[in-house]
Design brief:
The protein is α+β, with helices and mostly antiparallel strands. The chain has 14 helices and 22 strands. 38% of the residues lie in helices and 29% in strands.
Length: 362
């Protein structure tokens, strides 16, 4: 038997098992029952309660906590709308740090887009509208599998797709919580993920739209083109010629190889895709060609002999090309393999270019 003081000041004898109980999704003290959301709401009104600090100790959040956390961030943005230095701090602290360029290995800071303004208003996101409507939105609960968690920790990157790669933090990530949250609002994708870095535990917010991702992709392409401008100009110059010399051919190989990179380093697969024709009567298997093999075969061809196709229409069909030049160069011809340098246009919208056809003799 236990006692408790009633609101009228009297002392009442009760059995605690009868006084403290659960009912459906509620916790009841006597005749007073509260849902989990109501308890959280009460907790919010306690002195010194701060969802930003409170959330650091939690590996999962309730829907209303998620919305409150995101709403607090939007409020901070609106309060500092005219203060770029404070906006930088907010975006760097609470949002994904950057978008990784899978070709060059460079980064584009997300804060540059999150804070970008046009006619004194934020260009990509209406934070006022998000602040007002976040409460109405549905939160979807998702989970990273073990392999994805290992990938994020080992690379410090979140690969949403092969080409959409986010740097979640500029500090080293040492742990990732499997549970994460996703909200769709119109054309805006909102994601919230919990990470632990060398410095802190925190929830990271990501905001994207297809238009923003397209803008970032274009910016990444511009960065790539600027970095390799001289190489691109030389390749385009050679691709504008119907006749090339052995020296020009080697320059062509060198520059395509130099530009065949993934995450800033040479990629054999990209090089193969850039230089080889992948179809001749059937899909061609080039997987067994190693880097050393290709450079020995391609860079120092046994031949550089000008030849002419006897039946150009048949060759177009064999290659699956829109157009093929009658003239080609034979680079190797023996009992094991035949290698040709062919000038053609795969699709009607493509620019003509020189590519290598590697055939094993059957």
């Amino acid at each position: 038997m236990n006692y408790y003081w009633q609101a009228n000041g009297s002392l009442k004898h009760v059995r605690m098992t009868e006084f403290f109980k659960t009912q459906d999704d509620k916790i009841c003290l006597g005749e007073t029952c509260l849902t989990k959301d109501e308890i959280i709401t009460i907790k919010k009104h306690l002195l010194n309660y701060d969802i930003m600090e409170h959330s650091k100790s939690l590996d999962s959040l309730e829907d209303n906590e998620i919305k409150e956390y995101i709403k607090d961030i939007f409020e901070k943005i609106l309060q500092n709308k005219e203060n770029n230095s404070e906006l930088d701090k907010i975006f760097n602290k609470y949002f994904t740090y950057s978008m990784f360029n899978p070709r060059t290995g460079g980064q584009i800071r997300m804060s540059d887009f999150y804070k970008l303004k046009e006619n004194e208003e934020f260009k990509y996101f209406d934070y006022q509208d998000l602040f007002i409507n976040i409460e109405k939105l549905t939160v979807h609960k998702l989970n990273f599998d073990e392999d994805k968690i290992k990938e994020i920790i080992s690379s410090n990157k979140y690969y949403a797709t092969k080409n959409i790669i986010m740097i979640l933090s500029n500090s080293k990530i040492i742990d990732v919580v499997s549970r994460w949250y996703y909200i769709q609002y119109g054309n805006i994708q909102i994601a919230l993920m919990k990470i632990t870095t060398n410095n802190e535990k925190k929830w990271v917010l990501s905001l994207t739209t297809q238009d923003l991702l397209k803008t970032i992709k274009n910016k990444q392409n511009d960065n790539f083109n600027n970095k390799f401008r001289s190489n691109i100009m030389l390749i385009e110059s050679i691709n504008g010629k119907l006749d090339i010399s052995l020296t020009q051919y080697r320059e062509y190989i060198d520059n395509i190889r130099f530009m065949s990179i993934y995450e800033g380093t040479f990629s054999l697969d990209i090089f193969k895709n850039n230089i080889f024709i992948s179809y001749y009567k059937k899909d061609l298997d080039l997987s067994k060609l190693t880097n050393d093999d290709m450079m020995n075969i391609l860079y120092n061809p046994e031949l550089f002999e000008e030849k002419t196709f006897y039946n150009i229409m048949e060759e177009k069909v064999n290659l699956g090309y829109h157009s093929v030049n009658k003239k080609y160069y034979l680079l190797r011809d023996n009992t094991r393999e035949e290698i040709r340098l062919i000038y053609g246009q795969k699709n009607i919208t493509d620019k003509p270019k020189w590519k290598i056809l590697y055939l094993e003799v059957e």
